[in-house]
From TrEMBL:
Residues that hold substrate according to the record: K31, R45, Y57, Y141
Protein name: Inorganic pyrophosphatase
Cofactor(s) listed in the protein's UniProt record: Mg(2+)
Lineage of source species: Archaea, Methanobacteriati, Methanobacteriota, Stenosarchaea group, Halobacteria
Annotated family: Belongs to the PPase family.
Length: 177
């Protein structure tokens, strides 16, 4: 059985084009996690706050970030896909975040195979309202979980996202190669 974290490349041309393995779906409250030991997507929890994912959310294969997890990616989509779906995507921005004292940044990406997102190349191309909604979601989605504290720390451009992806690929190599 294929392990989507270990057996796939980070992307066809990482960090310019990456693979996003979808865990959580746009419009839902279910928090799915990929369990590499099964391997498969399992329900981790239902979000305690009355919020839903602003777009499909998951991780990039063969990455490892400062929070000691695969590197997170939010792929802007019109319609949700499904847990375990692999989306070829282009990084366009980085949202900085602190989750319980750990750096837990999020790459924002767009699907390479959806012409509705061809015009989004960098941070300034993402509508401000959508950036605000994404920020609001990650600022509040753990509010009702006891002992959890999250802080969003602002936005950075496409180059920062690509640099962070390279960092996550290097950390994966250091820890798992």
């Amino acid at each position: 059985m294929v392990n989507l974290w270990e057996d796939m490349e980070t992307g066809p041309d990482a960090p310019d084009e990456i693979y996003a393995v979808v865990e959580c779906l746009k419009g839902e409250r279910n928090k799915y996690e990929y369990d590499k030991d099964i391997p498969g997507v399992v329900l981790d929890r239902v979000l305690h706050s009355n919020v839903h994912y602003p777009s499909d959310y998951g991780f990039m294969p063969r990455t490892y970030y400062d929070d000691e997890d695969p590197f997170d990616v939010l792929v802007l989509v019109e319609d949700q896909t499904f847990p375990g779906c692999v989306i070829e995507a282009r990084p366009v921005a980085l949202m900085k975040m602190d989750d319980d004292g750990e750096q837990d940044d999020k790459v924002i990406a767009v699907p390479t195979e959806d012409p509705r997102y061809d015009h989004i190349e960098d941070l300034e191309d993402i509508p401000k309202q959508l950036r605000d909604e994404i920020d609001e979601f990650f600022s509040t989605y753990k509010n009702l979980e006891e002992g959890k504290e999250v802080e969003t720390l602002g936005w950075e451009d496409k180059q920062a996202a690509k640099d962070a992806i390279e960092h996550a690929m290097d950390l994966y190599e250091e820890h798992f190669a």
